[in-house]
Amino acid sequence: MGTVLIAAAASVAVLMLGTWLLSLRLKDVSIVDPVWGFAYVVVAAAAFLAGDGDDGRRLLLLVIVGLWGLRLGLYLTRRKLHEKGEDYRYVEMREKHGDRFPLVSLGMVFGLQGVLVLLVSLPVTAAAAQDDAVGALAIAGVALWAVGLFFEAVGDAQLARFKADPANKGKVMDRGLWRYTRHPNYFGDFCVWWGIYLVALESGAWWTVVGPLIMTQLLTKTSGKERLEKTIGSRREGYAEYVERTSGFFPLPPRSGLARRT
């Protein structure tokens, strides 16, 4: 596994360093957001090429991580191209650190995200070094991954269409998958990485559970659901009522008596 991890770490380091240098030229650190998905594709490719484990499992991991990461990266890239200026989080950080911001951003943004990518990807790098053939548990993992990709892709597409309609400005998206969970895209990511973990678990890499656990923390607390909902209520009409009737994470039917009337 050591060789795979070194190859993955080197690949991610080159990607993040290059993105950091580009951010200095563009004066926009938020270009790191689309790179988040592509970084996992880089790890999967490095694991496939450097790994010496079962060919079928390495190829399977490359395909499922690649499809997820490319979709996410392209979606975030398109969204970034339609945005104006740097994300407010990085604007605040830039103002706080002044002339030190370039080096601070290298460590606190690009370096930190690179480390997180490597930690979350441990199931991928570990399983690529194992000889066990693909079996039933890996198939179950792919099924869970597919559920996650569906929720994430469809949820993102539904939200994009909703936002594209000027009549919906300032309103709450409570249709489609968003009727059953306030965060179908985050739930999708959750399923994707627990599915990938099952593929690794079959090869004996049980300890790589740290990967999906970190992703779960990111999705539900650190930078996902909890952080978003701290401010969205003041920006969206009827959000408090939406919270009352809609599950916060796992998809469930709207609470009885509180379903949206159409």
Summarize the structure.
By secondary structure, the protein is mainly α. It folds into 2 domains: 132 residues, no CATH class; 128 residues, no CATH class.
Please tell me about this protein's structure:
The protein has 262 residues and is an all-alpha fold. The protein folds into 2 domains: 132 residues, no CATH class; 128 residues, no CATH class. The protein contains 12 helices and no strands. Helix 3 packs parallel to helix 7. The chain is globular, with a radius of gyration of 19 Å. The N and C termini lie far apart (54 Å).
From the N-terminal CA to the C-terminal CA, the straight-line distance is 54 Å
The SSE string, one letter per element, is: HHHHHHHHHHHH
What is the residue-mean pLDDT, rounded to a whole number?
A: 92
Oligomeric assembly: single chain
